[in-house]
C-alpha cells in the first residue's frame, strides 16, 4: 500500500468538509515535485515486483482450511529476527536502507496489506537493467516465500491464490473467529476484524460506505452448472437482518438473482495481485511507458486469470478486477447517475479502482481521437497545474485523478502545509487504483519517474510469477528499444478490460489491438514521388496521412496478440521480445532460462496450457464433493488450498511435482521445471527457441536488423 500515516482519522462527515483542502494542498505538493523533478535525467532503468500472499491455516488431515488473521504477529516476528536484522531487516518500517545497500543480495521486504490475512513482499532493492538479474527474480520470490513461512506457525502457509475461495461463506473461515456485522463494515458476511486493524484501513472501508450512502455492492454472476438452479438466489444472503440501516440494502435490490452477492471491501481489496513498477530514465520516457503499457493491461489480465470462485460459489468470470472495483466504489447515487446532480459536482462513469482513462505521453503518435472526449476532470485544478507550468495532457491526467475525494484524512496533517512532503498528493494519488499508475519521484527526489503495471493476477508458483514479471520487463524494453506503438482509443482499453473478465476469456474473447506496432518506414511511394525525400535529401520523408483510427486496430485473440497472427500480419509480443533478445547480447544460459518463461506465456496464450482459473475449475469439477451445482464446499477448498501448498513446497525444494497426484497439473505448468539443457520427469526438454509456430513471421520480416535496438 502506498501510504501508512499515523494520527486521528476523521470520520466521513468531518473528512468531507476537509476534502477540498487536501486536494488544494495535494496539488501544491504535486507542483512542487513536478517543478523539482521534471528535468530529472538519466535515472537507471530499475524495476521491482510486488507479490501478495494469503495466509492460511491448513492441516493435511483436516477437512477445513481457515484464513489466518495473524498479519501483525507475522510482521513482528520478521521484524524481530536478529539474523535478518543483521542483513538490513525485512520489514518496511524496520529496515536499515543503508546497510541493505551494501548487501549484494539484500533480504526482501514484507509489507502489511488491507486484509489481515494478507502479506506483501518486494525484493530487498529494485532490480537493475542486467539480463542476468532477470534470473534472480524467481529465486528471490522463492526466498520470500521461505522467509515468510519460517515466521509463521507450523500450520500456517503463505499461498498465492488471488482470493480465498470461501471468504464470507457461512461458518468459520477465519482464525480467530469473530462475529460478523460489525460497526465499521456492517457486512453480513465478514467481521470488521477481517481488515488490517491499522486505523487507515477500517476508516477507508467505513468512509467509502458512508460516502456512498450504502454498503458497497459486489455482485458476480454465478456460473450455471448442470445442477445449479435457475434463477439462482444466493442462499447465504440474509434478508431479515435488522442491526444496521445498511441491512436494508439487500431488501432494496442489492442482491440480484443469479449473482454471488458480497458487501464489503475485503471481498475486493482482499485479493492478491502481481504488480510491476518500472523506473524510466526521465519523465518523457515514463509518460511513453505509461501509454504503451496501458493497452496491454487487459490482455495480461485475461492471460493471468486466476479468480473463478467467490464466497464458496463458482463465478461466471475468471478475474478479480471488477470485484475490487466495486468493493471500493465510493461514488454517490448522483455521481453514478442514479439521481439528478444536486450536491455532487459531476457524474463519474467509473469507480476509483478502474482501468485508466487518459493517455499522457507527449508523443506525436498520440492522436486526439485516442482520448476520451467525455473525460471528467476538475477544470480549476487543471488550470492551477497549467498556471504552474504543467502541460495540458499531464495536467488533465492529474485533474482527472483529483475529481475524487480523499477518503482517509488525519486531523494532524491539516494543521500546516508542508511542501517538503507529498502526503496530500499521495492521499488522492494512491487511492486512485487504476490499472496503470504514474508515480512521480518522492519529495526528496532520490528516485525517478516510475510507472506501475497493476492488472496482473497472482499465480500459484513463483516460476509463473517470475515468468510474468520478466515478460513484462522484456516487453517494456522492447517497447523502448523498437519504439513500438500500441495506441488504441482509450475507450477500447476499457472495453477490453470488461472482456478480460469472461470465463476462459483468454481463449474465447477477442480484444481490440493495434495492427501494426512498428514505426513507419519511409515508403517506396515517398521515395519515388515525394520531392522532399529523394535519396540524399536532407528533408525527412513526408509522414503518411494518418488515415482512419478505426483502421489502425482490429479484434484479436490473446493468442494472436502474444504469439502472432497466422497470416503474419501481427507479429506477436513473444516474437517481438525474442527479436529484442536477438538484438542485444544475452549469453546462452540466460537466453535459455528466459525462453522457459516465454514458453509459459506463449502456451498459456495458445491454450496448450491452462490459466490458473481454468485449472481451478477443472480441479473443482473433478473433486468427489462437487455436485455440479456451483458450490465449492469446505472440503474442496481445503484440498484446493492443499494443492497450492504442496505445489509451493515442492517448488521451493527444487523438486518436481511427480507423485503429488494433483489433477490437471501438467496442463497448468507443462514441463517448465525441466530448466535448460535437461528434461523434466516427463522427458520433455524446454526449448531455447520458444517460437510458437514456424509458419509465423519472423523478426527479420518486420524489423530491419539493428533498427535502434539498444
Ligand atoms: P506500492 O505498493 O505503492 O506500489 P511498493 O513499495 O510496495 O509500492 O512496491 C514498489 C515496487 O517498486 C517494489 O518492487 C520496489 O522494489 C520497486 N522500486 C523501488 N524503487 C524503485 C525504483 N527507483 N525504480 C523502480 N522500481 C522501484
Ligand atoms: Mg499491495
Ligand atoms: Mg506495495
Ligand atoms: Mg503496487
Automatic annotation (TrEMBL):
Output one GO BP term. Answer: glutathione biosynthetic process
Pfam families this protein is in?
A: GCS
Q: Which domain of life is it from?
A: Eukaryota
Please write the reaction equations for the catalytic activity of this protein. Answer: L-cysteine + L-glutamate + ATP = gamma-L-glutamyl-L-cysteine + ADP + phosphate + H(+)
Annotated signal sequence is: none
Q: Which GO terms describe its cellular component?
A: glutamate-cysteine ligase complex
> A GO molecular function for this record?
ATP binding
Q: EC? A: 6.3.2.2
Record has Transport as a keyword: no
**Region ranges (Disordered):** 524-547, 680-710
- List the InterPro entries hit by this protein, alphabetically: GCS, Gln_synth/guanido_kin_cat_dom
The pathway entry for this protein reads as: Sulfur metabolism; glutathione biosynthesis; glutathione from L-cysteine and L-glutamate: step 1/2
Q: Which UniProt keywords apply?
A: ATP-binding, Glutathione biosynthesis, Ligase, Nucleotide-binding
Q: Which family does it belong to?
A: Belongs to the glutamate--cysteine ligase type 3 family.
Protein name per UniProt: Glutamate--cysteine ligase
